[in-house]
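Exercise 7b. Backbone tokens:
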């Protein structure tokens, strides 16, 4: 609280100061501002139709539960629209159970249908088992590929027309820089920051919170009384993304607005790139029939590699 500062809207004592804009908000106006940002993003990029059946990826964390809460408020104004929450159980011992319970509780409170899907059921292995026997990639790399497939399968099963994820501005800036660090120029074109999946054989995936800072989504969840999981994933530390997160956070403190600058810069780069030089249309995997840019999709390439011997040490 800053007693000497006042909310830019109602002039009540300020609760939050948005440094990169130079604006201040009380609690109520801060929540309204975040909800309005979500609505503006949906309108600006034409993310939703009045009759969409939206599958919302709900992990039990702050971002996905905050997004689900805001989308439910919007959905109440559109009687032909529908929301179904989808939670993916990767099979991470001692971690996923809490988030699954929090997702179920929030869905009950919001009166949202909740659909669960697990790596064990879809792929015959949990993430813990995959990490023990497949060590060519980081755990996050395996999880990212398999989670995307699980969400697509689950969303199709419930009859959804689009998938919404809780990716925030921090996530988008990290991903865009990671693609550059990895030299994956084609992925910059294929994966837009707002809407993915066009003309690729996948259900469109939207990111309504992609222009909101992670700390602001967390603050929205806190001030809205949303219970969410705070325990970090045990596989987070080795990932390059974690280093990218720390770097961007330091830059944001010294230079407010850096994350927005990264997002806008990459959007301009993407719009000026020669898309004809990169493959953006997908064929079908020869093994599973899912959309694929080659003969075999990423999931089949991962799961059909011979596992490494497990050490007895």
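Sequence design result:
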């Amino acid at each position: 609280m800053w007693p000497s500062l006042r909310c830019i809207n109602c002039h009540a004592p300020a609760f939050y100061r948005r440094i990169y804009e130079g604006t201040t908000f009380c609690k109520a106006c801060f929540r309204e501002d975040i909800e309005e940002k979500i609505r503006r993003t949906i309108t600006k990029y034409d993310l939703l139709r009045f009759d969409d059946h939206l599958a919302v990826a709900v992990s039990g964390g702050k971002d996905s539960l905050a997004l689900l809460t805001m989308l439910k408020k919007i959905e109440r104004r559109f009687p032909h629209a529908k929301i179904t929450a989808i939670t993916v159980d990767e099979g991470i011992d001692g971690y996923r159970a809490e988030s699954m319970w929090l997702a179920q509780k929030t869905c009950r409170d919001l009166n949202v249908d909740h659909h669960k899907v697990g790596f064990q059921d879809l792929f015959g292995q949990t993430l813990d088992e995959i990490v023990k026997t497949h060590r060519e990639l980081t755990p996050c790399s395996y999880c990212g590929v398999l989670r995307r497939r699980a969400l697509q399968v689950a969303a199709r099963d419930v009859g959804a027309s689009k998938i919404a994820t809780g990716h925030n501005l921090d996530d988008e800036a990290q991903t865009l820089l990671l693609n550059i660090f990895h030299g994956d120029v084609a992925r910059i074109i294929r994966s837009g920051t707002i809407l993915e999946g066009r003309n690729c054989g996948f259900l469109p995936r939207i990111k309504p919170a992609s222009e909101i800072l992670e700390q602001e989504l967390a603050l929205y969840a806190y001030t809205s009384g949303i219970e969410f999981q705070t325990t970090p994933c045990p596989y987070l530390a080795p990932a390059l993304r974690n280093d990218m997160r720390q770097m961007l956070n330091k830059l944001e403190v010294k230079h407010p607005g850096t994350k927005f600058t990264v997002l806008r810069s990459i959007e301009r780069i993407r719009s000026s790139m020669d898309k004809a030089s990169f493959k953006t249309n997908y064929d079908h995997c020869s093994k599973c029939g899912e959309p694929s840019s080659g003969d075999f999709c990423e999931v089949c390439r991962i799961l059909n590699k011979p596992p490494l011997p497990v050490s007895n040490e």
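Instructor comment: The two ends are 53 Å apart (CA to CA). The chain has a mean pLDDT of 87.
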